[in-house]
Amino acid sequence: MALLEVKDLKMYYQTLRGQVKAVDSVSFEIEKGKALGIAGESGCGKSSMAITVLRLLPGNGHILGGEVRMDGLDLLSMSEEAFRKAIRWSRISMIFQGAMNALNPVHRVGNQIVEAILTHEDVSRQEAVDRARRLLDMVGISPRRFNDYPHEFSGGMKQRAVIAMALACNPDLVIADEPTTALDVMVQAQVLRAIQDLREKLALSMMLITHDLSVIAQTCDDVAIMYAGRIVEYGTATEVYKKPLHPYSMGLVSAFPNIAADKSPVRSVPGFPPNLVSPPEGCRFHPRCPLADDRCKTEEPASIEVGGNHHSVACHKVDVTAGGIDIWV
Amino acid sequence: MGFRTYLIRRIVYALIVLFVILTFNFAVFRLMPGDAEKMIIDPRFSPEARMALRKQFGLDDPPLVQYWKYITSLLRFDLGQSFATRRPVASELAERLPNTIVLFLTAFTLTMIIGTAVGVYAAQHRGTFAETFVTGAGLFTYAVPTFFFQLLLLMLFGYYIRIFPIHGTMSAPPPDGAFLRFLDRVHHLILPAGSNVIIGFGSWALYTRNTMLEALGQDYIITARAKGLPRRDILYHHALRSVLPPIVTLIFLSLPGLVTGAVITETIFSWHGVGRYLMDAVLQQDYPAAQGAFYLIALAVIISNFMADLVYGLVDPRIRVGAGERR
Q1: Chain B neighbors of A121, CB-CB under 8 A
Q2: Taking the model in full, what pTM does it have?
Q3: CB-CB: which of B224, B226, B318 is closest to A105?
């Protein structure tokens, strides 16, 4: 059984302009010890999915269907109080895009970690403090900085402190939402290395959300490409990265320069992500897709498995894209 | 910048402000229409008697000498003698100051507690009828002119429904027994203090609500929720705690406004305090008395500003001076 199982999950935001279908029939699984990367443009629903799993939705966000199961346990039907005590942080924790604001500015960094431990575990304060110091040490922050306030940390240190905090209660799954955005390139590399090290050392299961495919290529086993609230392609990171089958994934991959390969222009996917209140009929990507034909405009493509390794794609034109031609010329 | 330099700077700054205020205070009474002599010197006096009186009050000195005497005696807390009562202003003020402090400390503490609690409640129940009602009521009472509202209360609860006394700090003669005297005081306190609370809580509630809502929308609140903290901890330990610095600063910054508000409240409720003393002194052109009251108010304003600076540093680690040295 997979550690986390998400099936047909639907989460819509109720707004004045109508329902925003941020997460629309999304399914995926994360095996124990594996890392799944979720990639897509801003506004494709990837962060919404993360907060849906932890049930941190704002007042206007509603889960309208589907299942989220952890070790078979139905997370969506649990009472709020039971979920808070038994799941949040103790089993699923989250690394936020934390360089800026994920830490409370008026509390000492160490105490914010201690607080998480004391909420979920019946240990003495001293034990919690000791563990928090060890965690800081583990992410490369001197335990002497335990009593510092967040503003005394650099951006990269804050992000590493947030990572340390996410590990405070030995969670089964860590969701990392854009953990390296807002950091400069050198610090990004540091933080990514810290995440990778910890994954190896602790056999962590992870869900890593990012718009940066290179981050996923570096840290994840599997990848799901999201577009307009749907997963359009799913497979192992190497396979999707080497041989993307959905035109959108192909665009994402070729939008990402490869310093090892021959010189080729960096391309982007023209157009903008659709409005999720009234997404396009048929395949949601058809307005931006160079291969789109009449069928794509009316009929929604189902996700079909291609080859082995659970590589699946939702596209009517797989036979074309599988041919290996460059569609983004 | 070390804490000492910071402290010394604030003190020097406060002293300069005090000096400017005192000078202004000295000048403004001498520029006001009317003449002190008319108050204390009967036109039928002989020129000799007149000169003697002028001499007694030091009014025959040239302005600069008067100014020097004024400053030096203020520093010794010698506020001169009232023209009207011929008693030392300092002892008249000392007699009234406790009444003023009791009235406004009560009103202020209640305003703070109620205002903040209501604000937190409104932020917590965003979008409900309760929130609309609370913010509406807060805005309404905030907008009502203090004196008008107080007169209404006085008319309603002092005259038509006689449940509260219409004037004074205590009954004359006061009832026997310490406890009854205390109750009598409280009875007199309810309307003046209560009206200030009703007028004042709204702006606090709205301010607290707004800053709380802003805090509740911050990323670190989502972190706190994700950590599985109980609701109460998120609300108080994370949201309220993080908006405490501006709130506490505002508390101290609003103290001066209270002192000046004392003039209106004390006049309307005939409260035997510094505010009404100032009002009477101005009306009677009693320079020393008015100057003394102003001096006291200026001191209160300067001290509360000074404290606001210090306290802000204490509650907000980001501006805690010299925090970088501890490492």
Answers
A1: none
A2: 0.78
A3: B318
